[in-house]
Amino acid sequence: MQPAINNEHTIRRVKAARRFSLGSAFMYIVLTAWSLTTIYPLYWIVNNSFKVSSDVMNKSFSLALEPVYVNYTTAFDRINIGKSYINSLIMSGGTVLFVLLFGGLAAYVLSRFTFKAKRPIYSLLYGTLLIPAFATVVPVYEILIKTELVNTYWGLILPQTAGNLTFATLVIAGYMTTIAKELEEAAFIDGCNRWQMFVKIFFPVSRPAFASVSIFVFLWSYNDLFSALIFVNKESVRPIVALLNEISSQYGTDFGLMAAAVSLTVIPVLVIYLFISKFIEKGLTEGAIKG
């Protein structure tokens, strides 16, 4: 009787392993196919950035066996992409800094304090997410004109900070609610005031949420062509996404130059993502669980 039971358990394990193997294989095939839809376009752009314009048109899918670097030298010398780089990093970096500061403080208040207006504030924050950004362009532009902030760094930093503040507050507040109250009580016993508690306790513990918010805010700010064309269309403060839009009109037939400019545009995003990618999944998932 015992050998029959063992054989039955063995058969079940084999069937389970077979199902797991087939399921895992299918999952990896789907994920690989999906990743190729993202990786291959990036490879295609970088590869064509090392070709002259005629080769991009005639041999766009062939490997650049004899790469040329004239597109990159032209990008820095003729269209001054370096200045646009600096402008984008200043504006996007400033936006991230202010969003994390004000959003983090607002999230700390909403997650750790109890007051009558708390639920209405949450309702108001969720309601603002339903307002399209295009609906606020005219009043924001009028405010910037009256304050003489059009075509300045602040002319893009302030609107983008306001636009991303709701998202940052809700994500960080959701994460901070999971922090144990015992940690807060221990900090009070040690003599921490509210500001010290935020800086020394809640900010370090909530780093995954802050990292998740920072990469999303940086991406949205860095890639915001619509706001850049309206609020900062002057060449001295023009971000890199607005420069890409002008390359197509000034050098419309130079596809190699356009590919090089796009490749240079993607580099900062990839570098920043590589440094903080380990925090993103943790920040987005743990904030949804209340402990």
What is the C-level CATH assignment of the largest domain?
Mainly Alpha
Treating each run of at least 4 consecutive H or I residues as one helix, how many helices? 13
Give the termini distance in whole angstroms. Answer: 49 Å
What is the overall silhouette? globular
Largest sheet: none
Portion in beta strands: under 5%
Beta-strand segment tally: 0
N to C succession of SSEs: HHHHHHHHHHHHH
pLDDT below 50 for ≥5 consecutive residues: which ranges? Answer: 287-291
CATH homologous group name of the largest domain: MetI-like
Estimated structural class:
mainly alpha
Number of domains: 2
Radius of gyration: 25 Å
Which range best describes the helical content: under 10%, 10-25%, 25-40%, 40-55%, 55-70% or over 70%? Answer: over 70%
- The overall pLDDT, averaged over residues, is 81
User: What is the CATH topology of the largest domain?
Assistant: MetI-like fold
Name the CATH architecture of the largest domain: Orthogonal Bundle
Structure in words:
It is a single chain. This protein has 291 residues and is an all-alpha fold. It has two domains: 2-48; 70-286, MetI-like fold. It is 77% helix and 0% strand. The protein has helices at 2-48, 53-58, 70-77, 81-112, 118-128, 137-146, 154-176, 181-189, 194-205, 207-222, 225-231, 240-250, 255-286. The two termini are 49 Å apart.
